[in-house]
Design brief:
The protein has one domain. 76% of the residues lie in helices and 0% in strands. It is built from two helices and no strands. The longest helix is centred in the first third of the chain and has 24 residues.
Length: 58
């Protein structure tokens, strides 16, 4: 005897799996970890500070 499958639930399950796969692709393509973002922000702040330290007053 065949197993009874609820089509609505099967469609939702398939959509969730598809969304999760797309999310993984997007995370690998565009995502950065919180530590990476903080490091880049700190480097930018350090560069701004170095530039401001060498600025001449008008």
């Amino acid at each position: 005897m065949a197993e009874v499958v609820k089509l609505r639930a099967a469609k939702k399950r398939l959509a969730r799996a598809k969304d999760a796969a797309q999310g993984t692709v997007n995370a690998s393509r565009f995502g950065r970890t919180k530590a990476q973002k903080a490091l880049e922000e700190a480097e930018a702040a350090r560069a701004r500070a170095a530039l401001d330290a060498h600025r001449r007053d008008p």
